[in-house]
Write a structure and sequence with these properties.
Helices cover 43% and strands 17% of the residues. The protein is α/β, with parallel strands linked by helices.
Length: 405
């Protein structure tokens, strides 16, 4: 097949997040399909921005549409979204007639790309697929306090409803969305669940990479001091509940636990300042590292932390990439969440405690730290086995193709 995947924020190992479009496309190319990814030239989640124009990576064709730079979630991001959708809409004939797709996938975080995908699919007489990362407008309403009557929320709601009505197939990363989607007009016979995962060969190649010297030296020093190392690797934003982790760290400052946070994001500078101002000498915040170094980082942890806000939106389920990495690295995981699903509990690879509860996080860390290294290793082995059975990209890419019928 010829697969046209529209994802505003698509990335690659060369550019950074989002990785899912690249990994699915790479598997599809390996199966003999042709894939064209259409994405914006600027995205807040990428480490490196591509040059506008065409590019080929590992057999995957990319078309990067020029969009304005922006920071944060304000008007600049709206302009960026508008520019991307306008450019793709304008090129409907070119994309439909030159590439001649059999399948068109609308896969941006926001739902408005369904309109350009539908326009291309109709001209090409292709199957239309709507892939759901997060439920918009519900996510900005419940996570950011946006009014349901805000013009942007109303626009998203119109797009979501149109997607459920017009798509031939709906693929969701979130596992508990059936009731919500049905309430907005989806025939549930169209719905297929394809969660996030890991690329096994990339992971195996990355395991040969060494950690950068300052970070490696810091972890080695903590080991020499007999400290239990609690780590976090990923985006530093409000949804990641890192203030809760720092609150727990403050409560544990007299205990032999040290905390290592690695990543970037809107909250990184403020979190660094908080660590300094509160004198949390057992907490260190490091800049992001290349994806290839993540296995080496995680191998140096005793416990990996992942936290969430307490919000109703997670009743539809969660599909975090970083958790897949934690489990693949055989980390014992402290999971602070209340959601429709819980991979940590399902796999038996750690401990789950309530979200936004520093005392519960602190006690959970104490409990895991009190286990023997062998007991934590057994948890880690269960997590890795869970991922290998259910969440490798060859498995997920085939599930996606099977959903197309």
């Amino acid at each position: 097949m010829k697969i046209l995947l529209i994802n505003h924020y698509a990335g690659s190992p060369q550019h950074g997040m989002e990785f899912r479009p690249y990994y699915l496309a790479r598997e599809w190319v390996r199966q003999g399909h042709q894939v064209l990814i259409v994405a914006a030239s600027h995205s807040h989640v990428r480490a490196t921005q591509p040059q506008p124009g065409a590019q080929t990576l590992d057999g995957i064709s990319y078309c990067w549409y020029r969009t304005p730079a922006y920071e944060g979630n304000g008007l600049g991001r709206v302009r960026n979204i508008w520019a991307f959708c306008r450019h793709v809409w304008k090129d409907t004939d070119i994309l439909a007639d030159s590439f001649e797709p059999d399948v068109v996938i609308a896969s941006s975080t926001y739902p408005m790309d369904i309109w350009v995908a539908r326009r291309i699919a109709r001209r090409a007489r292709a199957k239309l697929v709507y892939e759901v990362h997060d439920l918009w407008p519900l996510s900005p309403i419940e996570l950011s306090g946006m009014s349901p009557r805000h013009p942007f929320a109303l626009l998203c709601q119109k797009a979501e409803n149109d997607a459920y009505r017009d798509a031939d197939v709906v693929v969701s990363m979130l596992p508990c969305v059936h009731e919500h989607m049905a309430a907005h007009g989806l025939d549930l016979a169209k719905l297929h669940i394809v969660p996030n995962g890991i690329a096994l060969d990339d992971w195996q190649a990355a395991e040969a990479h060494t950690l950068n010297a300052p970070l490696a030296a810091h972890l080695q020093a903590l080991r020499a001091q007999g400290r239990t190392v609690v780590g976090y690797a990923g985006s530093m934003g409000l949804p990641n509940a890192l203030d809760v982790l720092l609150d727990a760290a403050a409560a544990l400052r007299q205990e032999p636990l040290s905390f290592v946070l690695v990543g970037s994001g809107h909250e990184a500078a403020r979190l660094r300042q908080r660590v300094a101002s509160e004198g949390l000498s057992h907490v260190q915040v490091f800049d992001p590292i290349p994806k290839a170094q993540i296995p080496a980082l995680l191998a140096g942890l005793d416990i990996a932390y992942i936290g969430w806000q307490r919000t109703p939106i997670y009743r539809f389920g969660i599909a975090p990439n970083k958790l897949m990495d934690y489990m693949m690295a055989q980390c014992a995981v402290l999971h602070s969440v209340d959601a429709g699903n819980d991979p940590v509990a399902e796999a038996g690879c750690g401990l789950t405690v309530p979200p936004q509860d520093p005392a519960a996080v602190a006690q959970g860390l104490r409990t895991l730290a009190a286990l023997s290294p062998q007991e934590r290793a057994a948890m880690g082995e269960r997590g890795r086995r869970y991922v290998l059975q259910r969440h490798t990209y060859p498995v997920l890419a085939q599930r996606f193709i099977d959903a197309l019928g």
